[in-house]
Amino acid sequence: MELHISLAAEALFHLGPIAVTNSMLVMFLVMAAILLVGSWLARKAQRDPHPGRAVGLAEMLVEFLLNLVESTAGKRIGRRIFPLIAGIFIFVLFANFTGLLPGVGTIYIKEDAEEVVAGEEATLETTEEHSEEEQVAGEAVATGEHAAEEDPADEHAAEEEHHPVNVPLLRPPTADLNMTLAMSVLTFTVVQIAGVSAHGVRGRIKHMANPPFLFPIEVISELSRIISLSARLFGNVFAGEVLLGVMYAIAASIKIAVIPVLAPVVFLGLETLFGTIQALVFALLTLIYVFLAAAGHDDHDEQHVDEHDTVRPVEAQAHSSGRMPATAGD
Question: Would you list the domain boundaries of the chain?
Answer without folding.
Answer: 11-113+163-295
